[in-house]
Design brief:
The chain is α+β, with helices and mostly antiparallel strands. The protein is built from 2 helices and 5 strands. It is globular and about 45 Å long.
Length: about 160
């Protein structure tokens, strides 16, 4: 199976504005989830649900009226989970190049109509970049386990 990135492009709108006059972080998070969902369901061929969003890093604000590009790509698969790398870029309409504004990893699980996990096709990295991305995903999985252990006393 070919791992083609899913790319969304659109213009940020006035309805996306926060109190500081830039795109609201919640709008960016919605776009991340939508692109991740499109990528996961395309990869798995099944309805998929978000189970984890980690380390969202906002580098720079996105201005209202800029062209936004959201790239989503599988970087690791488990038996039913898909780890998707999301990068959000934007550019002024008058500029030719995009600048990275946000990055995160989002994990989806393929499920059936009853919410039971379904197996997903295995992703096998081929290029050196893809191998590095897979190692990155595995390191983040280990860190998530540590974070979950730290949180256990505070989750009720």
């Amino acid at each position: 199976m070919q791992n083609k990135p899913i790319t969304f492009q659109f213009i940020s709108e006035p309805s996306d504005v926060n109190y500081g006059g830039n795109v609201h972080g919640g709008s960016v998070m919605k776009w991340i989830d939508q692109a991740g969902y499109a990528c996961a369901t395309t990869w798995s061929g099944n309805y998929s649900v978000t189970v984890y969003v980690g380390g969202i890093r906002f580098y720079e604000p996105i201005k209202i009226g800029e062209v936004v590009r959201v790239d989503a790509q599988v970087i690791y698969t488990g038996s039913s989970s898909m780890h998707i790398s999301i990068n959000v870029f934007s550019r002024n309409l008058k500029q030719p190049t995009f600048d990275k504004k946000t990055h995160c990893i989002i994990v989806f699980v393929a499920v059936d109509e009853n919410g039971k996990k379904l197996p997903v096709p295995k992703w096998v990295p081929e290029t050196e970049e893809e191998k590095l991305q897979e190692k990155y995903a595995k390191r983040l999985m280990d860190l998530r386990t540590q974070i979950e252990d730290e949180m256990k006393p505070f989750i009720k």
